[in-house]
Amino acid sequence: MSFRSAARAAVAGQSCFPRTPVAVVVIAIVILAGLSLSCANSSRPTQTEPSHNAYVTLPAKGTVLLMQINSATGFITIGAQTPPEEDYSPTGLALLPSKKFLYVANSRANTISIFNVAPNGTLTLSGTPTPAGGTGPNVAVIDPSGQYLLVTNTFTNNISVFSIDAGTGALSAIAGSPFDANSSPTGILITPSGKFVYVTNPAIGMVTAFSFSSGVLTPVPGSPFPSLPGGGGGAAALAVDVSERFLYVANPLATNPLVPTIGNISGFNIDPDTGALSTILGSPFTSTFGNGPTALTADPGGKFLYAVTPGSSYSIWCFAITATNGQLTAVSDSPFSVAAGGLFSLIDPVGNFFYIGGSSGIEGYTFDPSTGKPTVITGSPFSAGTAPGQMVFSE
What we know:
By secondary structure, this protein is mostly beta strands.
């Protein structure tokens, strides 16, 4: 399957990797505030610690799922779902820092839904969805100031930028939006300062870079940058370290001359003034075994970078990040042969828990702050009844 075909499949609520329907681990469904509420299996241990919320899109069902995450254990309790919308295929989502509004990119409908977030985390649709400004809206992010929403439009090769009304949550397109983003933009990342924006272009193996100011995207000199020398590899996912000095890109199709592994991770220095990328010495970095990393995440402490692949054989690659130069070194026992997935990976903002989206649901792990080694959370995997799209935390 070509990357463009894979992108079209993804925004249609499918994936270029096989997905297997999974059973929903629930014992009851009740109706609460117009939303369906799924309760966790009573055979699991009772969770009594304070919880915080997270949200997951379910493209095949046309809904957004609320989850409560136990702050002490990482255990997920399945919560309310928004009413299903046919032909919406929600994929990317972004939560305003105030936690008042959640934005969801509907890849089939070419719209953005705005949800009011209640104190208990439940969602209520706010008015008519806003036109996305492009075709195939895929991934959504909000800048650190909470003033702007950015959405990649895969099929029209651009990025829509909206200003956010802090009181109502309403969206208004920025002058000049949508901005050209080269071929089939998919993933998007804003650096912690909000100064630079990076976008993956899997079809051409590139990373498109922008400076970002007052909602306007300006191409960085030299952009787009090849993910690998000579191009190719896929450029499927992005991660930035906490210092904002290093950018990492997953190349799921790259071959490596010295190991049987398929796929590797490119590392780049970020110019602090221009946002331009230059290759880190020793890049690309890879694992001794494994196949096709499609999601990346860096821990909030800045020590580790994780690359995940579908399946359970050599599925989680863990690297220590060298603080001085950004080089990656595989930690002891990496790659780890535990259940993972290629849909998304993210660590909660506090740095306690690591979640991975796959066809079997959401895999949950704790990880050792000294070694990076993941350990399965009791009750994992947590089923949403169908493959998830993207996930966001309320913290």
